[in-house]
Design goal:
Shape: elongated
Largest sheet: 5 strands, parallel
Strand content: 15-25%
Strand order of the largest sheet: 2-1-3-6-7
Order of helices and strands: EHEHEEEHEHEHEEEEHEHHEEH
Mean pLDDT: 81
Distance between the termini: 65 Å
Oligomer: single chain
Low-confidence stretches: 231-245, 251-257
């Protein structure tokens, strides 16, 4: 069980610590968060297999955050809530929770549900590394390497780049990018423009004439996969030319001796 990572998002510090302690006794790797803000950072940093999510958090709606988690197509979700009506349970399950446990609950039932969810671990496992030739995206370390250089991105820039690249060149609207890359509901699609501008400054040779992240009029943005293939060909050509030059220089040196 030591390889299974669990994130506990619970506003009650006593309950959070108690759940964490019991899970650690079963040799799960446990990370804790007390708010949606912390939960997002923990999730992006550790990519847990299972998220235990309190529906009532101090800084936002756990149901809405559950929707964001579900869109990541990554974790199993066990929702905890003091709300125990049929409507509440249905709302949690429709938001993406795999199981719903009403408070108060017994520890043995909680642990049994956790173990049952782990057994149902979704397959296939999401890739930990995406390779687009001159662009590599490490989903575990959350690092991006472009044309041989590591690019320093903010968490939001990383999420935006990942969503654009994963679309494989298909144009995405600003609203779609907000839905996929942002953890919270935002009504202003122009937020995307600000982050795209910042991202272009880090990955484009000339941000004023972007080639990698293209603007599609009346639609939104697309990731130019073709330019990556072009860059691959160019880099391979350069490598071959360098090897040919080195071989010629070696031959000349040998003949002079």
């Amino acid at each position: 069980m030591g390889s299974v990572c669990i994130e506990i998002i619970e506003g009650n510090p006593h309950l959070r610590s108690l759940l964490g302690w019991h899970l650690q006794q079963l040799e799960y790797r446990v990370h804790q968060a007390a708010s949606i803000y912390q939960a997002r950072e923990v999730f992006l940093s550790h990519q847990p297999t299972l998220v235990i999510l309190d529906a009532d958090l101090p800084d936002g709606d756990g149901i809405e955050f559950c929707r964001w988690l579900h869109r990541q197509q990554q974790p199993l979700i066990l929702m905890l809530s003091a709300r125990n009506t049929e409507g509440d349970i249905v709302a949690g399950l429709k938001a993406g929770a795999d199981d719903y446990l009403s408070k108060p609950f017994g520890m043995q039932e909680f642990l049994a549900r956790v173990e049952a969810l782990i057994r149902r671990k979704r397959t296939p496992t999401a890739p930990a590394y995406l390779d687009y030739g001159t662009l590599q995206i490490d989903l575990v370390q959350r690092r991006v390497r472009f044309q041989g250089e590591f690019i320093d991105l903010t968490p939001q820039e990383f999420s935006l780049l990942y969503v654009l690249a994963q679309a494989g060149g298909v144009p995405l609207s600003r609203s779609e990018l907000l839905r996929r890359a942002w953890p919270d509901a935002i009504d202003n699609p122009r937020t995307i423009d600000t982050h795209v501008l910042s991202l272009r400054k880090k990955v484009e040779l000339d941000p004023r004439q972007p080639n990698l992240i293209q603007t599609i009029r009346n639609v939104g943005y697309r990731f130019n996969m073709e330019i990556l293939n072009t860059n691959i060909s160019q880099s391979q050509t350069t490598k071959l030319a360098r090897e040919r030059f080195n071989n010629q220089r070696s031959t000349l040196s040998s003949s002079q001796v």
